[in-house]
Design goal:
With 348 residues, the chain is of the alpha/beta class. Helices cover 33% and strands 16% of the residues. Strands 1-2-3-7-6-5-4-8-9-10 form a 10-stranded mixed β-sheet, with helices on both faces. It has a 3-stranded antiparallel β-sheet with strand order 11-13-12. The protein is globular.
Amino acid sequence: MDGFEDRFPAGKDSPPPVRVLRRDASEYPALLAALEDAPEQLFLQGDPGLLAGPAVAVVGARKATGLGLTMAERLGAELALAGVVVVSGCAVGIDGAAHRGALSVGGPTVAVLGGGLDVAAPPNNRGLAARIAREGCLATEHPLGMPPLAHHFPARNRIIVGLVRIVVVVEAATRSGALITARLALAAGRDVMAVPGHPLVVAADGSNGLLVDGARPVLSAEDVLNELSGLPALEHPAAKAAAPATGGGEGGGDGAGDRVPRPDRVPRPDRVPARLLAALSNSPESAERLAHAIRTPLPEVLAALTELEILGLARAYPGNRFARATTTRAETARGGPGGVPAAGEALP
């Protein structure tokens, strides 16, 4: 008896069945289970075995350049040919190109969605999502019918990070979901790599900034494969017991489980984000200095800075520096500087 529960078994000509994989099941991906805020359950459509394979995330801008799309598709194809599972978010732009590259060579790919499996894919990528369900795997923490709301996407990105060893960013603006994914990756101990972009291309400002901050450059899939082969072997721990996390609400004590704080939510004073917010000023300071100031390990500070950015309370600057955000509540609510996109908009 396996750990899957078939919610909607497939008929003869139907799409693959929707299966539920709980965190206490032996089949739950060990890398993801190691995250403190791993989802208590995953809704899957396709081959769940792909969640356990050696995996690399390829993420980036929705409004990508032609060269960026070509590079993402090439990376997807070449990584898949090498037996690496290509993970992304099925958004238009770089995400979709990476998935298509993997599928073009019959390789493995996993798409993590920010809503229910039946409604979350962007209209332009619904055909792609259906193909991934047949030939790869679709995954989400949300039940069928759940729309892809804006605050789901940073939480979606943590699942992408949890499934992979390396995150590759192909074109990302200075304020983008791809950069949030990169910071989540660093906080989770994952490697971050980036494709260099032309300095006059706005879509590459954020990815070029990652390179300035020390990310390894990616000129071909070989660079990623070399990095992957040099990583230490993981002891795949058994999935953590599925006891519900303590604290307020579904997401556990730090509010980062099935839901991500909305922009109008202020962190509790006893939490790291609140102490970090008090330490932030209008002048950008390095994450390392902030960690020293509040006497908190750097990975926790990086995760807290990501939460403050989602809340619209902090702003990132080149050189891994951060300052208190100066945007208004109205700007934050409508998804302007420092906020999240309008409801239903899919961050890459």
